[in-house]
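Pipeline run #58 for the internal structure catalog. This entry was flagged by the ingest filter as a single-chain record with no existing model, so it goes straight to prediction. Upstream metadata was stripped on purpose; only the residue string is passed forward. Reviewer on rotation: M.T. Logging verbosity set to normal.
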Amino acid sequence: MKVAVGILLAFVTLAWASCRHEPRQGATLTYELNPPEELQDYYKDLDLRSIGESFYDELAVLTIAKHRNILPYNDRHRYLYKLDRALTPGQENKVILLYTGELADNRAYLSEKNSFQPQLFNTEHVYPQSLITNTAKGDLHHLRVCEIAINSLRGNKKYVQGKGSWQNHAKGFYPGDEWKGDVARMIFYLNLRYNENFSEVGSLDLFLKWNTEDPVSAFEIRRNNEIEQIQGNRNPFIDNPVFSTLIWQGPAAANRWEDAKTQ
């Protein structure tokens, strides 16, 4: 499936409630959207020539329809520590902690029922649990293991701009240079899948910026592939960050499907 898309991103009115931002002027950008072979069946019903609201709606319908296994929140323990395992061969018994990148024994999760000591990490909801009133609480696409103290510091603070490693401010939290793209793509997914509002956790402009500055990692790709096997759906903004540009404009994100090869 190979589609050459000529896109006029000019005065596109994106008026649906989830976005809540003003129309923007843009330039003519051309993308070649050529999904890798292993993703062609998943995206076969998506019109890769559409943009803006119509593309958002099609992508949302697909993402919701593919989400066949809605996990109760307590089921996360069955999957999360394998999903977040280290990439380095021989360290599969360790998990990568969000915001720091540090490794921890996968048995060191916080629980009264866990006899392992010390207990170092718990579950971070990138979109805070206190702001969610739907089944997103158990969605693995935005759940990550995180150092207990850092998770508590972040709480339900909005994400804000920063530089370098993670930073906790009075009015916001910076996830760090190595994690800001991961966070942005997870927030995009929560908006697309559950209509969660950007303004509750930061700003759309900030997430669009982070999506371009911090490219998709091998860790995100592996995680996305494995979550599909569990839930049935994928985070499309990991598959191709340029989807954010097709929907919301902003800075041009990377097109991972240009001359794409099997991942």
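catalog note: The two ends are 16 Å apart (CA to CA).
catalog note: The longest strand covers residues 3-8.
status: ready for reviewer M.T.
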